[in-house]
Amino acid sequence: MQLLSDDRGVSPVIGVILMVAITVILAAVIGTFVLGLGSNVGNNAPSATFNYEYENVSSGTGTQYVNITDQGGDSLDAGKINVSIGDDSLQTNTEDSTGNISIPSGGAWPDTVTAGDTLTVTDNSNRGIEANTDVQLIWKSSGGSSSIISSSTTPQ
After folding, report:
1. Would you give the end-to-end CA distance of the chain in angstroms?
2. Mean pLDDT on 128-146
3. Could you give the CA distance from residue 19 to residue 89 in angstroms, rounded to a whole number?
4. CA–CA distance from 84 to each of 10, 65, 114, 129 (Å)?
5. What three-state secondary structure class fits 107?
6. Does residue 57 contact residue 107 with C-beta atoms inside 8 Å?
7. Could you count the other beta carbons within 10 Å of the beta carbon of residue 12?
8. Percent share of the chain, pLDDT over 70
9. Closest by Cα among 152, 150, 122 to 134
10. Which of 40, 47, 69, 109 is most buried (CB neighbours < 10 A)?
11. CA–CA dist 54, 68 (Å, integer)
């Protein structure tokens, strides 16, 4: 009966097991953040397809209007998407103007963008948007990272 009541060796064994477990857990957590894996959780860009139509309403100048239509895919939060044309950028759910581009009244996307919604961007300058200019839709995550989810180039 003396054998069953002697438990002096149990405490050091449990202590060693707990220390090893805590060390492994800490190493995994620190390793995840050192490798940058922790910052990408929940920051996956949405997937959608877009159609770009370029319209020239005055002769002898560049593109005057760009119509960007969602062709399908994920529903998008327009507040997280900017349209960039050359060096100018605008948020897609506001009727706003910056630099050489603007989103006219009635041309902005709704707060949630789904298939069939069209964004209209116009040129504010008298020369039009130059040929071979990049037009990009840029999605910004809540974590601060950004991704180009669609792009096109103005025609010649």
Report:
1. 96
2. 84
3. 53
4. 66, 14, 20, 12
5. coil
6. no
7. 9
8. 83
9. 152
10. 109
11. 9
For residue 53, give the nearest of 111, 120, 6 by alpha carbon.
120
Torsion of CA 26, 28, 33, 36, to 10 degrees: 170
Please name the residue that has the structure tokens 């974590």.
Answer: 143
Tokens 């995994």 — which residue? 28
Question: What letter represents residue 146's amino acid?
Answer: S
Q: What is the pLDDT of residue 25?
A: 95
Which pLDDT value is given to residue 37? 63
Alpha carbons within 13 A on the beta-carbon side of 29: 6
Query: What's the rounded Cα separation, in Å, for the pair 59 and 151?
Result: 26
pLDDT tens track for 68-114? 999 988 888 888 888 888 888 888 877 777 777 888 888 888 888 88
What six digits make up the tokens of 144? Answer: 């601060």
- Cα–Cα dist 156/65, whole Å: 14
Q: Are 93 and 68 spatial neighbours (Cβ–Cβ below 8 Å)?
A: no
Q: Given a cut of 80, is residue 39 above it in pLDDT?
A: no
